[in-house]
Amino acid sequence: MIIFKNVTKIYFPDTLALDNISFEIKGGEFVVIIGRSGAGKTTILKILRREEDPTKGLIYYKNRNLLEIPRKRLAEIRRKIAIVYQDFKLLDKKTVFENIALPLEILGRNLSEIKEEIFKVAEKLKIKKKLDQLAGTLSGGEKQKVCLARSLVNKPEVLLADEPTGNLDPIASFEIIEILKNLNRNEGITVILATHNREIVESLKTRVLVLNSGRLIRDENPGTYALL
Ligand code: ADP
Questions:
Q1: N or C: which end of the chain has fewer CB within 10 A?
Q2: How far is CA 11 from CA 6, 52, 55, 212, in A?
Q3: What is the pLDDT of residues 5-18, one digit of tens each?
């Protein structure tokens, strides 16, 4: 589903963020990317959503050359390859409902369609009672669930999670990881999780890609938390 072929990324003027990286991810996989801060994890995720272009190399998404997709079709790709972040990026002064509704409004859905979709996803993520609450007043774990809900209304094929538990306590963290596991297992969503949380990596017992200074030094399935 996703192929990185000899991908190098140099940020101007001379930061080598990814150094000749190749890997393939099949549809339905749950893959963890680990590595120290600055190892290149976020850069991989950004390249996948075409928020950054590689300096060299090829990327395929479902047999299409991702780098040849015209700019005007990138929004579509970004709906299919959704992302959630460590710092949530919610509109704090809007309600949970309004936050989740945004991507659907952009697509021109009418209010009854929007409500139906939001109730469905809120039920799944157990945030139905929070729909009228301002996003800024939620706990970290609740905020991350809202972010997941906001991604899910676009029916993504791939979900990228960039340190999604970085701001959460251990209990909320494991709840978010459980949700990611269920989305992967029950809905077939391909999940790529960047993290440096050892407990989470060890508990997942899934494929692990290890980055070290921009190089892919290990690719094991199941992998363990070993940075060197
Ligand atoms: P990680 O997610 O593993 O912490 P990143 O992919 O964010 O790593 O960063 C990899 C390297 O690229 C780091 O050295 C970082 O400082 C650098 N980098 C990331 N984004 C930029 C940018 N926009 N401009 C210049 N350097 C960047």
A1: C
A2: 16, 10, 8, 17
A3: 999 999 999 999 99
The overall average pLDDT reported for the chain is: 97
Domain ranges, ordered by start, for the chain: 2-220
Provide the pLDDT confidence category of residue 227 given band limits of 50, 70 and 90: confident
Closest residue by Cα to atom 17, ligand 1, is 17
CA of 43 to the centre of ligand 1 (A): 6
Could you tell me if the CB of 11 is within 6 A of ligand 1?
A: yes
CATH number of 2-220: 3.40.50.300
Is the minimum distance from the CB of 103 to ligand 1 under 6 angstroms?
Answer: no
Mutate to test the pocket of ligand 1, among 42, 52, 86 (most ligand atoms within 8 A of CB): 42
